[in-house]
Amino acid sequence: MLRLYNTVLLPVRVGVALWVACRAGDDRKRREWAERRARRLPSIPPHGIWLHGASVGEVRIVRSLAESVRSLRPALPLAVSAYTPSGRAQLPPVPLTDAAFYVPLDFSGLTTRLLQAVRPAALTLVETELWPNLLHEAHASGVPVVVLNGRLSASRMARYRRLSRLFRPLIERIAVVGAQTEADAGRFLELGAAPRAVSVTGNVKYDLPAPATDAATLRQRLDLSARRPVVVAGSTAPGEESLVLDAFEAARRGHGELLLILAPRHLSRIKEVEALVLSRGLRMGRYSAGRRSVAQVDVLLVDTLGDLAALYRLGWVAFVGGSLVPVGGHNLLEPAAVGVPVLFGPHVEHVAELAEALERTAAGIRVRDAAGLGRELTRLLDDETRRTEMSRRAAQVLETHRGALERSVSLLLSVVDSGAP
Fold it and tell me: Are 179 and 188 in contact (CB under 8 A)?
């Protein structure tokens, strides 16, 4: 099956080569594609750890894992990688790590070339980065594969079941899986992971530090009064911003000074979202404009990378996107961790455990649609006591789930120390 997989990818590989030759004209793009094709290789001492996360959310976990390993084993070499440009931009630099790069495209031979340069004692994949050639070539090179914060959603499982002949022989040889939940552990076992290799370590995101920037600093930067009500809508998806704006305009009927801080999931959509906001006659500003007053702004559009977690601190209420449309939901922990009541839609398959915990303890609220979001925003903006109680309950939920980072690092180091093949 792996041979068939690579045969199917062959025209894609040729297409990529032609695209790079024609399009990668600037230095930044040339460096990116040199890394993606394993033509630009890092120089790093051998027998360390290679940590990989796909995008920004996983890279935050990579950073925390790297910090913990560095504190415990200062001399152990650390290499880190990401798949997306936004993730690559957030990878921890030297001296926290020894090398940072894009993971190669999953074409035959590219991972082997990188493994020969890095020569790690373990390749660590965060959450669900199960690429066939990546797994196969790590095994063939004698590098144990560790999955930490392992997560397998129902939608991903459907795909893996269909391709079980391809994935089962690869997953059977994974050295260790630290799964987020019992359900995730069961799915890894169903796909062929060895029972002795799978354990439940919890979700490392519960242990991630809160943003260093405080609300007072952010308010000063924006000349924002602490008395002005603020709703933060983070990680919104295509088709979702219009729903959020419907809810915002409904809530504004009772709170005329309401400010919406709107952060689309992907910065490539900023102009599209900007046009949508302006088409409604709303006054809009961009966060990248730097120090400026938002007194004359209805919607502040977040067009920078890595600032959303801190900006949640300004919210009286937060909505986390990818949940009113069928995406699966994004990081509910970021607003909850800074004491902001959390609202989310019905589509939270990717964060089901936390969504259920927040809802069960009345620390978060699930809404069905834009009308429901508008109603709950209004109720919470009107009720400071309820907002405070939700914040307290969310802090309790987070506290009961901490400890996954320590368990995950211990698992990883046990593989490194044992030299497991």
Answer: yes
Two tokens, residue 377: 């925003």
Could you give the domains of the chain?
2-202+403-418 (3.40.50.11720), 215-400 (3.40.50.2000)
Write the pLDDT tens digit of every residue in 365-383.
999 999 999 999 999 999 9
Contacts of 107 (CB under 8 A, 6+ apart): 6, 9, 13, 133
Cβ pair 178, 147 in contact under 8 A: yes
User: Going by C-beta distance under 8 Å and a sequence separation of 6 or more, which residues neighbour residue 348?
Assistant: 323, 328, 329, 332, 355, 366
Active site residue 58: yes
What residues contact residue 173 under an 8 Å CB cut-off, 6+ apart? Answer: 135, 139, 145
Q: Which of 32, 58, 240, 353 is catalytic?
A: 58
First-to-last C-alpha distance (Å) of the chain = 23
Rounded to a whole number of angstroms, the CA Rg of the chain reads 22
pLDDT tens for each residue of 25-70: 677 888 888 999 999 999 999 999 999 999 988 999 999 999 999 9
Q: What is the pTM of this model?
A: 0.87
